[in-house]
Write a structure and sequence with these properties.
- The protein is α+β, with helices and mostly antiparallel strands.
- The strands form three sheets. It has a six-stranded antiparallel β-sheet with strand order 5-4-3-2-1-9, with helices on both faces. The chain has a three-stranded antiparallel β-sheet with strand order 6-8-7, with helices on one face. Strands 10-11 form a two-stranded antiparallel ribbon.
- A hairpin with a 5-residue loop joins strand 3 and strand 4.
- Helix 1 packs across helix 2.
């Protein structure tokens, strides 16, 4: 039933969007508390347009803001994931952005951190992307606190006011070279967050670039990455074994 999940953690499931999810998203997240810093309540057409964009984004890039569910009861909670920033007025247009939206009843339960942590782990450990950005309103203290906990850092030189709006958006980022920050978050996280389960649904995506500029499916890319890591481990094991044998044969003084 859940073959279309993309990532899975101890408590959560990030999955592909399905027919009828517009209604689920509206019920869960199109509320005054959730949308306070996100432009206010949306119309049905705006919600449907968002879902169309999310689906198209995954078809083009292999990732998107995926639907977020709780595994224990399959409750729809909102979304979390990655997109390429489409806004032309944004200083980092085209770059990766991590984002989330979670229903109010699930706030302060660690779900946002758990979902976003899984997305960042997949982004850096599996896809080997270089940098991820995130945007939020200055007054959205909860979102900013989560960004800090995830290891993202402020980029004040990139803050901007979107066209047609008055409020400034703050930009945060984390790079693959900032792995120590992500490791620090892992030390305070539940061990189940260390490595999310990757779903078979990635097999249909084909937009990840390999090391020589060619294109491979994301599942093939992930498999190739794991095989290379395994081969590297085997080589290290063989080297260590030879060194250990050499030490065993070395005569004592």
């Amino acid at each position: 039933m859940y073959r279309d999940y993309r990532l899975q953690t101890a408590r959560l499931r990030l999955r592909a969007w399905r027919p009828g999810d517009a209604e689920s998203l509206a019920a869960a997240c199109n509320t005054t508390p959730v949308m306070r810093w996100l432009g206010g309540l949306q119309t049905q057409r705006q919600l449907e347009a968002d879902l169309e964009y999310f689906i198209a984004s995954e078809a083009q890039h292999g990732f998107t803001f995926w639907a977020l569910e709780r595994r224990a009861d399959n409750a729809f909670m909102g979304f979390c994931g990655l997109i390429r920033i489409p806004d032309r007025d944004c200083p980092v247009q085209g770059e990766l952005e991590i984002g989330w939206r979670i229903r109010e009843s699930d706030w302060r339960s660690g779900y946002g951190f758990e979902a976003a942590h899984a997305v960042l782990s997949f982004t850096f450990d599996t896809m080997r992307m270089k940098v991820v950005y995130s945007r939020t309103a200055a007054g959205n203290k909860a979102s900013r606190k989560l960004m800090d906990k995830l290891g993202l850092k402020r980029c004040p030189e990139l803050d901007y006011v979107p066209t047609g709006e008055n409020a400034k958006l703050l930009i945060y980022s984390i790079s693959i070279d900032d792995r120590e920050k992500l490791h620090a978050t892992r030390r305070v996280a539940n061990s189940a967050l260390e490595q999310p389960t990757i779903g078979s649904g990635f097999v249909e995506s084909d937009t990840f670039t390999d090391d020589v500029g060619g294109y491979v499916t994301s599942f093939e890319w992930w498999t190739k990455h794991r095989v290379e890591k395994f081969e590297e481990l085997i080589e290290n094991e063989e080297w260590f074994g030879k060194k250990r044998d050499w030490r065993r044969k070395k005569p004592r003084a």
